[in-house]
DNA sequence: ACAATAGTGTCTCTTAGACAATATCGA
DNA sequence: TCGATATTGTCTAAGAGACACTATTGT
C-alpha cells in the first residue's frame, strides 16, 4: 500500500488596513507550481517533535515568522485533495501583528484580504473557511484578537481589531466591561498614546502570563476567559 | 525516512446508570496487548475516503456501532506516543444512546465511568481528557447531548443527561427556555411517557433535519444553536 | 385523596446595550 | 477656545435563575 502523504498547512492571518488578511506563497513545485497557496509542507518525522512543531517550522522557514499565536484547527484528508495521492494535512491557524511580517526580506509573502480569495489550490478554500469560522467564533467570547496587535495597544485600537474580525460594530461600554472581566490586560503606568488632536488613550499590554505566544496552547488562553 | 504511522482513535461516549461512560477494548496485538484502550486503528488509504470514514469503519468493525454522532476532535502526534515510531492519530469522539451498544454480540466492549479511568495506554488519557472537555464545553451551549438519548425522550430525561455531562444541576425553567429557543425538538403528538405514578411527560424527538446522525457535521448542529 | 413529578407563570437579579456627561489632548 | 476622541457614569431592556403554583398520573 502506498504511504499516506502527511503535511501541515498554516492559515496565517494578520491585520492590514484595518481588515483581516491571509498570507499566501507561490508554490515552487508541482502540483500547482506558481499558484498562490497556504504555507505548508511535509511533516519531517526526523526533526519535528509533533505536528505543532512542524507547523512552527513551516512558518519560520516559509515566512520568517518566529513568534505567533498558533492553534491546531482541523485535519483534512482523503484521496482527492492532492493529485499525488491519499493525503492528510493537519491545518493550523496563526495570528500575528502585521509588523512581524518582514516584507523586505520576504517579498514572496503575499497578503490578500480574506473576503477576496480565489484560485486557491487543493482544498485550501475549505481550510481557510474553517479557520475564519473558528477565529470569528472564538473572538466573540475570548481574547483571541489581542494576538493581532503588537506588544502594546490602546483599547479603542483593540476594539477596532475585534470589529474588523467580527465584521460589525461593538458597543464601547460592553466591550470595555468584557475586556475588564477577562482580566488579561494591564495598563502601562503613565504610558499614553499621544500625538493625536484629542484626549490620549491609555496603552495596555497582555499580562505576563499570557505573553509567551509560542508556549500558548488553546487552553492557556481560554482558561482565562 | 521511515513513514509516519497514521491512525484514528475514537472516544466513544455513552450514558450508563445516569453517568457518562467510555467504551474500551482489550488490545489484541503489541504494543500493550491485553490492555484496555480506545477503539482505534490504521487509516486504510485504499478503502477510507477520509479520516472520518476511517473512524466510522473503526467504530463499526470494533464495536458494531453503525450509527452515532461523530465529530473530529484533534490530531495527536509525535515520536513518543507510540513505541513503534513517529505516529499521528486523528482523534474523533462519538456519542451514542447506550441501547445501541449490543453487549450480546460484542461482549468485548467494556464500559468505564469517565471519572474512573486509569491505566490507559499511549496518550489515550490525554485524548479522553480533550474529548471530555470538548463535550462538556459544547454541551453548555448546544444540543449535543440529545445524541446520547434514543429516538424519543422526555424533557426531564434530557435535562438529566445534560446534568450528567455538566456535573451540576440545571434550572428547569431556564433549561426548557433554552431548548425551546434552540428549536431542534418537536413534541410527538399525543405521545406521553406513561406508567409512572405521576403526571406523564411529553415525548419529544429531534426534528427531521437534525436526525441523520451519520451525515451530521459539526456545523450541522451548531448552526441551529 | 395523596404522593410524586410534569409543566407553566412570574418575580428578581444580573448583564448587555444605549445614551450621555466628563476628560484631555493638538491646533 | 474648539474639535476630536478617550473614559466613565447611569438608565433601560433583555435574559437567567428562583420560587411557587397548577396539572395529571398511579396507588
CATH homologous superfamily assignment of the largest domain in chain A: Nucleoside Triphosphate Pyrophosphohydrolase
The CATH topology assignment of the largest domain in chain A is: Nucleoside Triphosphate Pyrophosphohydrolase
Radius of gyration of chain A: 19 Å
CATH class bucket of the largest domain in chain A: Alpha Beta
Mean pLDDT of chain A: 92
Order of helices and strands of chain A: EEEEHEEEHEHHEEH
Poorly predicted ranges of chain A? 214-225
Description of the molecule:
Two copies of one chain form a homodimer. Chain A has helices at about 50-65, 125-140, 155-165, 170-180, 220, and strands spanning about 5-15, 20-25, 35, 40, 70-80, 85-95, 110-115, 150-155, 185-195, 200-205. Helices cover about 25% and strands about 30% of the residues of chain A. The radius of gyration of chain A is 19 Å and the shape is elongated. Chain A is built from five helices and ten strands, in the order E-E-E-E-H-E-E-E-H-E-H-H-E-E-H. Chain A is of the alpha+beta class and about 220 residues long. The longest helix of chain A is centred in the middle third of the chain and has 16 residues, at about 125-140. The model of chain A is unreliable at about 215-225 (pLDDT under 50). The interface of A and B includes residues 1 and 88 of A. Chain A binds a DNA duplex (27 and 27 nucleotides) through helix 4.
Protein topology:
The structure is a homodimer of 225-residue chains.
Chain A: E1 5-16, E2 19-26, E3 36-37, E4 40-42, H1 51-63, E5 69-78, E6 87-95, E7 110-113, H2 124-139, E8 152-154, H3 155-166, H4 172-182, E9 185-193, E10 201-206, H5 218-222
Parallel strand pairs in A: 1-6
Antiparallel strand pairs in A: 1-2, 1-4, 2-3, 2-7, 5-6, 8-10, 9-10
Chain A binds a DNA duplex (27 and 27 nucleotides) through residues 154-156, 171-174, 176-178, 192, 194-202.
Amino acid at each position: 500500500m502506498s504511504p499516506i502523504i502527511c503535511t501541515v498547512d498554516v492559515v496565517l492571518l494578520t491585520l492590514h488596513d484595518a481588515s483581516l488578511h491571509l498570507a499566501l506563497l507561490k508554490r515552487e513545485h508541482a502540483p500547482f507550481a506558481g499558484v498562490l497557496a497556504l504555507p505548508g509542507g511535509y511533516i519531517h518525522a526526523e526533526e519535528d517533535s509533533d505536528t505543532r512543531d512542524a507547523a512552527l517550522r513551516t512558518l519560520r522557514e516559509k515566512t520568517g515568522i518566529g513568534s505567533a499565536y498558533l492553534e491546531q484547527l482541523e485535519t483534512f484528508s482523503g484521496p482527492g485533495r492532492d493529485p499525488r495521492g491519499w493525503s492528510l494535512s493537519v491545518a493550523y491557524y496563526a495570528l500575528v501583528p502585521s509588523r512581524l511580517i518582514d516584507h523586505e526580506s520576504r517579498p514572496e509573502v503575499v497578503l490578500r484580504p480574506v473576503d477576496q480569495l480565489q484560485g486557491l489550490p487543493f482544498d485550501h478554500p475549505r481550510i481557510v473557511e474553517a479557520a475564519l469560522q473558528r477565529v470569528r467564533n472564538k473572538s466573540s467570547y475570548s481574547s483571541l484578537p489581542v494576538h493581532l496587535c503588537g506588544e502594546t495597544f490602546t483599547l479603542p485600537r483593540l476594539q477596532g481589531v475585534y470589529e474588523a474580525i467580527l465584521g460589525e460594530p461593538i458597543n464601547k461600554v460592553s466591550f470595555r466591561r468584557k475586556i475588564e472581566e477577562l482580566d488579561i490586560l494591564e495598563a502601562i503606568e503613565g504610558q499614553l498614546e499621544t500625538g493625536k488632536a484629542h484626549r490620549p488613550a491609555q496603552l495596555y499590554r497582555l499580562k505576563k502570563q499570557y505573553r509567551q505566544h509560542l508556549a500558548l496552547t488553546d487552553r492557556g488562553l481560554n482558561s482565562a476567559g
